[in-house]
Specification:
Two copies of one chain form a homodimer. The longest helix of chain A has 9 residues. In chain A, strands 1, 2, 3, 4, 5, 6, 7, 8, 10, 11, 13 and 16 form a twelve-stranded mixed beta sheet that branches. Chain A has a four-stranded antiparallel beta sheet with strand order 15-14-18-19, with no helix packed on it. The first copy, chain A, has a three-stranded antiparallel beta sheet with strand order 12-9-17. Chain A folds into two domains: 52 residues, FAH (SH3 type barrels); 198 residues, Fumarylacetoacetase-like, C-terminal domain (Fumarylacetoacetate hydrolase, domain 2). Chain A starts with a strand and ends with a strand. The first copy, chain A, contains five helices and 19 strands. In chain A, a hairpin with a 4-residue loop joins strand 1 and strand 2. Chain A is mainly beta. Chains A and B meet through strand 7 and helix 4 of A and strand 7 and helix 3 of B.
Chain lengths: 260, 260
């Protein structure tokens, strides 16, 4: 089990590393866990205060699920789906922890947080079995799947999932990618300005992470660094301008983003 | 006005060039029209038979519109939308002319062709005006927006646009990118095994290309090489396994893809 981060240094260099000493120290690596050549430890160690955390990966796409928790499915009175139901958030939606969620210039409606588990793909996979899918998962991160809620049903003929969720800065990822992580034992906890708003067990999930990767890999090739946002459960709500959302998963860390 | 192609040579080198002599000759360029450094003519000339055409750009995303032609909107009895209605097709969906559309291993239902005009973005743009949008368009290509039609409404609660249209090889682009192209004077003509199935005037479009780029750039940053598929009009239908679809736009060329 390791916690991978991606960071920039004071000199502008960008790199990958793992955390040690309860997150206080960074062990620096050469290369990227998402490149074919992988990573090599450099032996260099830094204090966490010497680096700026970035989104822990740079997905070409985020595949974001809807209706993937039994509790939410029951509350919405919608049957559990037979296949993961998803939309795509583009690469430019991604930000890391402590980066600002930016209100779109063209939208003054409600903006919602959705705390989620994120699966980070480690190997290219296409039409893989559940077992192969398990091996293709590099690790897990926290996701805030931000949504311009009032756009979703703005047009009566076409629910605008990609538009409502695709804005730049609406795909918050981080702070780390945890490898060897036991998602079955974890909860997603979301706070809004310090007040707990979501706290749900991940094992209430309809499609497990390996099932998601396997099934979605039959729909499209998943690439190293791609993220599947596993869907949210009960407790989503609006973020007032200026408010801070924290998504925490024990073993991964706390993803912090303010709406500006 | 020029017709840009992307190609590979017998030695495996990949490059950009423009066509001359009615498409018989290729003028080779260094660099890419989508890189900040742009292109330089090399002076090298080749016969078209010496190269293999590739998709003319490598979009990070295809933004694909639904209900963007008055004739189709009327036939569907749906009001023209107030904002472009779109989904995202991922990068791996892209293929070029004469590459095969592959039937997904997990799907034995109907697969539809949709002949469309594609806008190719030349400059990064975010929240730009219609005038700025016009200047951000590099050129135009043909699109076959392939769709696994029976997946769209498979789940009663969530129309699966990204899934039905996102499969690898379902985003056919090419054969060229035409710059300085007058879309108002052109038709999209689609043939299925040589029989004309679509022939519609592009100026029946609800949102013009510059309006699409401007409005969508308020939803997400558009990057050089990204493609907006402008939506289709009347005459879409199913492709039988083994059948060949040609999408032709005068001034751009004919995009040819067979379903295998």
């Amino acid at each position: 089990m390791a916690n991978w981060i991606r960071f920039s240094c004071a000199d502008g260099a960008v790199g990958f590393g793992t955390l040690s000493e309860y997150g206080r120290r960074v062990m620096r690596y050469e290369g990227s866990p998402f490149d074919i050549d992988g990573t090599q430890p450099t032996g260099e160690e830094m204090g966490i205060e010497e680096v700026t955390l970035l989104a822990p990966c740079q997905p070409g796409k985020i595949v974001a699920l809807w209706n993937n928790f039994y509790a939410l499915s029951k509350k919405l009175d919608k049957a559990p789906p037979k296949h993961p139901l998803f939309l795509i958030k583009p690469a430019r939606s991604v930000i890391g922890t402590h980066e600002a969620i930016r209100r779109p210039v063209s939208y003054d409606g409600k903006i919602a947080y959705e705390g989620e588990l994120g699966i980070v793909i480690g190997r290219r996979c296409s039409s893989v079995s559940v077992e192969e899918a398990e091996a293709a998962i590099f690790g897990y991160t926290c996701v805030n799947d931000v949504t311009a809620g009032e756009l979703l049903q703005e047009d009566p003929n076409f629910p605008q999932w990609c538009r409502a969720k695709g804005f730049d800065t609406f795909g918050c990822l981080g702070p780390t990618i945890a490898t060897g992580f036991d998602w079955r034992a974890a909860h997603v906890i979301t706070t809004l300005d310090g007040v707990e708003r979501q706290n749900y067990p991940i094992d209430d999930m309809i499609f497990t992470p390996a099932e998601q990767v396997s099934l979605i890999s039959h729909d499209m090739t998943l690439e190293p660094g791609d993220v599947i946002a596993c869907g949210t459960s009960l407790g989503i709500g609006s973020i007032k301008d200026g408010a801070e959302v924290c998504v925490s998963i024990k073993g991964i860390g706390t993803l912090v983003n303010r709406l500006l």
